[in-house]
Each structure stands twice: as C-alpha cells, then as structure tokens.
Amino acid sequence: MSDTVTKKFMLYFPKCECEKPIIYHFVKDFNLIVNVYRARVTPEEEGYLVLDMTGKPSDIERALAFVRTFNVVVNATGRGVTWSADRCTHCGHCITHCPPRALNFKDRRNREVCFNEEKCIECLACIRVCPFGACASAF
Amino acid sequence: MKSYAEINRKIESGKAVVLTADEIMDYVDRKGLEAAAREVDVVTTATFGPMCSSGCFLNFGHSTPRIRITEAWIEDVLVYSGVAAVDVFLGATQLRHGDPANMYYPGEFRYGGGHVIEDLVAGKTLQLFALSYGTDEYPRREMRTYFTINDLNQAIMTNPRNCYQNYNVAINNSDRRLHTYMGELEPNRRNANYCSAGQLSPLLNDPCYETIGVGTSVWLAGARGLVYSEGTQHSGAVERTDMGVPTGGAGTLALTGDMKKMKSKYVRGASFRGYGVSLSLGVGIPIPVLNKDILQRTCVRDRDIFAPVVDYSHDYPENTGRVIAKVNYEQLRSGEITIEGKKVPVSSLSSYHMALEVANLLADELRRGEFLLSEPVRRLPLDSKMKPMRMAEKPK
Hints:
Largest sheet of chain B: 10 strands, mixed
Strand content of chain B: 25-35%
Shape of chain B: globular
Number of strands of chain A: 8
Structural class of chain B: alpha+beta
Largest sheet of chain A: 4 strands, antiparallel
Number of helices of chain B: 8
Distance between the termini of chain B: 52 Å
Number of helices of chain A: 3
Helix content of chain B: 10-25%
Strand content of chain A: 25-35%
Largest interface: A-B, 19 and 29 residues
Shape of chain A: globular
Number of strands of chain B: 22
Radius of gyration of chain B: 22 Å
Structural class of chain A: alpha+beta
Oligomer: heterodimer
Strand order of the largest sheet of chain A: 2-3-1-4
C-alpha cells in the first residue's frame, strides 16, 4: 500500500443525483478506503458529501471521473468548513473545542490563530463556539 | 522623577522612548530598574475582549417636520430614546426585535446591539424606525429612514464598564454543557475559559490607579478616548498580592470616545450562544513612567497575576462567592491548568494577539508624537467595595 495517497474532497450533488450508491462504487469498483466526515444527501434536494479517499492516485482519478459523469461537482480545495481571517479576532476560544486542533495558535507567543484545513474533520464545533462568526459551513 | 509635561514634550518632539507592557519586563531585567526608569517614558498597555457594558449615544439631527422620538429601532434593535428629541442610546447587549432568545435553547443571538455598533463604525447603511405621540412643536409621529455614521451629528461611545482589572476563570462542575458569556463550558470540568490580557492589561500594570484615573487619555478602537469615571462595579478594596495586583475582579473604567474616528477592526459585535450579544473592543492605555515604582509595577508578569477559578453551574449563578482555586496567567496561557489533580484544557475569550497589536499601534502613535498623555484630574477609589443587590420584601 506504499503507493497509496489520502485526499480530502467535497462533492456537491445537484438535485436528483443522490439515489446512486456512490460510496459502494468507490469501494467496490475503485478499491478505495473511504472515510466520510459529513454528508447531507436528501432525495429531491441538492446534497453535499465531505470525505477522505485513500487509494492509488490513478484509482482516485477514475473514481472522480466516474462521479463527474452524473454531474457531481468535485471540489478538492474549497472544504465544507471555512474560516475567515477577517472575522477572526484571535481570542483562541475555538482551540480547546477543536478535537484535531485544526484551529490553533500559529505561534504561542504572539497568539495568532490559524486554520489548517487538512486537519479539519468538520465536526462544526468552531461554528457553535465562535462569538464572531469566523467559521462557516458550506452546508 | 518625570512629569507629564516633560514626557509630553518628548512625545511632541518625536523622541519619546516607548515600550509595550509585553516588552518592558525583559528590558528592565537587562538595563536595571533605575536606568530603565530614566530612559523609558511610556509603557503601553492594551486589551481586546468582550465588554458587555458598552454602548453609544447617537444624535440624528432634526427631520422636517420634527419628531420627538419616544420609541426607536436601528436595524430592528431597540434603542433607548428617553432623552432629548433625536438623541438615542444604543446598548451592546440589546437583542434584535423578534429574536427568540433562549426559547429554543441555546439561542444563537446572531445580531444585536454590538453588531449595530460594529456596522455603524464600519460605515454601513442602517435603518432607523422611530415612533412618537406627536406634540405641537414635534408633530411627526412615525418615520423610517436610512443613514450611515457620517449622517449623524454625533456618535459617541459611552461605556459604563470596560477594562476589568482581572476576571474569573470559568469552569463547569455540572454534568451538562453550559452556554455562558464566558463561552461554552463542557460538563465535569472538561474545559475552562478566562478573559483578560493579563500582563498586557491596563489596570494590571497600574494596579493601584496611580496614573490611570478620571481624565486619562486612552486609545479607544483607534479614536482618542477618555476615562470619564470609575467604571460600574469598580471595587478597589479587594485582596491584592504584595505587588498590589488584585487576585480577582477589582477596578473598572468608564470610557468614552468618538465613534466616527474608530476603526471597525477593533469594534466587533459578538454572539454568545445561550447568553446573548456583546461587543468586543480594543482599548490601549499609556502609562507614563513618572518614577521607578510605576515602572516596576508595569513589569508584572503573567506568572505574578492570579485569577479565581469559579464554577458557573452553581457558584456563579447562585452568587455564593466560592472560589475553587487560584491559577496564574502563565498557567492559563499554557493551554492547560490543573484543578484538584485534574488536567483541564483552557482557552481565552480575550484576544492577546489583538491586544498586542493595539499596544504596538499606540506605541507607534506615541513615538510619532500623535498621541499626548493627559494627567488624571481625579484618582480612582481604592476604598470602595462592590455591594450585592439587597432583596427587599418591603420598602425600607
């Protein structure tokens, strides 16, 4: 498994594309290990799915090509949770509430808060606790 | 050793030596107290945190025909209009009309007085809706109009209580999650929150109010502000360390300043889930190094400042006065404290990062000769104590 990679994606499902068992196909057809962080996929509505895929880069590419065939939008950069540097006042209240410490001080002395998207597991605790609305969810 | 006038002359000539309260301790350790007291003219202190006891007076100018406002809302947030015809007071914690508050607990409180104040300073267009009963000289009975801060005659921030000298560390002894003005508190002491700039905080650097008093010029969110009184709940007669530093809430300041000159980055509406709305504010206060004793007190370090750990599930709401433990700000800032043998993660509601930024901005203004010190006209009381409310069943 040394040639495998793990990548995080947010998939956007336009209306009516959610009856397909996508995760099943990821695992069965493309040999991927899937870790779903968050999903909201409801019939007759648009839906979102944020997940990690672990597998060969070529298999991940094939899986993404597969979902694109039915108009799913694959977003590899914009994640489900965003943090606004302008809204943040760097109080650090979010830090103890963030289990993976994706939100943390850049350096402890000047206590500037930064957000490491790669570490975020989308638990949404930051959205609940931030008094300034610095964190937001795409869905 | 130095007078206010001497220091102001140095500031005006652009030669004042200014350090922040974050830098001064190492400087004094290096140079020695006597030498540092001769060299350094001003130490800047600052804080940035939620300060509920904030608000502002606004004057709209007179409409044609005139109105004597009796009820008014800005962006659906009620303002107090029991003053002159077109004057209103907008309070930071006022909720927006129709906010369900905690009816669906915990309420989100997304917009209220603090946010209106932020939007005003940011220059946004806001809606005023006002009612009146109509009089001979003020016949208009209703109005709806849109305005920005530039349309107002005055927008004067008037904060009855800011810059609390030290504060509680909040913890939750119960088995359910609490939503407080001290942030979210997990059950069974799974986290703790504090709210002070510690070694950078104005009144912790002048613990006995030797230079900060009524009349002191302050940096209030970028504007030239003023201490106009002791703050509400000011309590000078409290337990103090040998250095004079209070070991719990003590002195407070009432501040005022022109909102038209403020920067919105330092005036921020805050929503505390389950509690309500507040306003976070950046305040910087210069401390003149009049003598070596004043300088020594600005050298206070986080490890010398102790704060009381208070249970917000029972002791705070029931006002029992019980303190679980005292911890210092060095421990708090490390991100973890130990309470009765248990390690508890800690975070802050006060931003040290923004406070540092404010202290440096003020220091730069002093170095450039743009900010002059003012000598207080009256000292803040050291002998007053905060009284609890007397619950009387009958009139006295």
